[in-house]
């Protein structure tokens, strides 16, 4: 009998002990679905632990978990509240999804065979946020913890950029590996990221936006490329999380980061020779002139040596140009890795305020600081594309100029010739009024007035400077703004508004035909014509949206001159 009891005790001991081992190894077996729950730090006293706490069989070793649902539901939408109001993405859908939901592995199959070093250094992940939806923020954190090898994540540093509710961040302090820093006033993403970087302890910094989902194997390629060369700054391929339904979609790997002279970031197609190389080497990194800015990894000491960020930049925008010009011209390199995938919720509008002058103003302020410090004589091309910027005061840039000098960085012409030769540099002679294509009606021009996507389009006196008035008909029928502000799209609702929207070459609502004889622009899908309505002289200039109407060849408000550059 005693022997039987011994065996029984032995068997049950083995069984109990095997549970943690099973949990450890079940990760792969369970794949995406794995998330036993977010573990709490051990130093939280039990009365701070929320209701969902779980205890293991033995008394000593307790597993305690964070109550994710409670955290999210404390900030649920109210009955009847517009789900886009707070975040400019669909919060109802975001809140309804599991924090560890499965997402498709969007990597090229060959990525699985890439050899990885087995002694990669660990990373500090830095996420800054201002009033982020709790579900989106938590899903970002869970995806980092679940889809990274445990030992490669030293810590996740959340920098709360003075969100209205301090508990959004504070409650997450309880999570294993998570540290929370909070600004006592709104600083913007640049100073917030530097605050996070200054507190970081790992060798490598990884920056993420607060509404991301890291995909399987996302981290290792980033670390590997940096270990091989500490002056590389590497970005994952940024997949798309749909702002309406949160579907996770693969992004094309045939794109890199670029821009026009208005200094607005845009994705550009790889050159034919780069595409050819990718066909035979689908896992190779892609050199990019510019990074989108939010999602990248960099060696901590290199980040410091290179001057972190411009601490006088505010809120949002322009810092990705500054760091990209700086990295390339001061000895480093930028690349996008096709085998590292992270999803990001792309929005059409900012959900937050811009203290200090509004979004356009702050963006021009930051961008102008970049242009004045890094672009030498080429800055005049920026001012030509965005004339308003010249009137924005930029403060003191002497520190950044001194930095550029002390680092011995190459001139901007070197960057243009060697890193972004595809960018067309307008020649001196074409500087006169006619260098940009326009859509004219008398002395008025089609003008976005700098309003973002989804806004109507207007008529405004022609200024010949391009920018918001640089519209051209592409060979596939899009009316595209040459400064990356999108394409004209007819909204097929009750009123036939014409808005500018993200260009999508196969969207029938963005296809137009120019009837050269009649000088009319016909919308292919609806057979309606672009109409300025401008005969309504009672309306103020900036409130004369252009619409579509039944085509009437005798109507002056439907006559358009398409000038070319
Ligand atoms: O005042 C602020 N304080 C903040 O902490 C304003 C914003 N933020 C946070 C915000 O919560 C978010 O986590 O900063 C992050 C970026 O702001 P978003 O998500 O509102 O802007 P975005 O997605 O348009 O940002 C892109 O461009 C920015 C330019 O300043 C930054 O470089 C972002 O990091 C960048 N995001 C990406 O690169 C992801 C891919 C998008 C593309 C292309
Ligand atoms: Mn973002």
TrEMBL record:
Q: Give the record's keywords alphabetically.
A: Disulfide bond, Glycosyltransferase, Golgi apparatus, Lectin, Manganese, Membrane, Metal-binding, Signal-anchor, Transferase, Transmembrane, Transmembrane helix
Q: Answer whether the UniProt record assigns the keyword Glycosyltransferase to this protein.
A: yes
Reactions it catalyzes? L-seryl-[protein] + UDP-N-acetyl-alpha-D-galactosamine = a 3-O-[N-acetyl-alpha-D-galactosaminyl]-L-seryl-[protein] + UDP + H(+); L-threonyl-[protein] + UDP-N-acetyl-alpha-D-galactosamine = a 3-O-[N-acetyl-alpha-D-galactosaminyl]-L-threonyl-[protein] + UDP + H(+)
Top-level EC class as recorded in UniProt: transferase
In Gene Ontology terms, what is a biological process of this protein? protein O-linked glycosylation
Q: Which domain of life is it from?
A: Eukaryota
Per the annotation, which location comes first and is thus the protein's main one? Golgi
Can you quote a single GO CC term? Golgi membrane
Q: Where are the transmembrane segments?
A: 7-25
**Could you tell me which pathway this protein works in?**
Protein modification; protein glycosylation
The Ricin B lectin domain sits at 435-563
* Cofactor section: Mn(2+)
Where in the cell? Answer: Golgi apparatus membrane
Q: What is its EC number?
A: 2.4.1.-
Q: How does it sit in the membrane?
A: Single-pass type II membrane protein
Q: What is this protein called?
A: Polypeptide N-acetylgalactosaminyltransferase
* Species annotation: Darwinula stevensoni
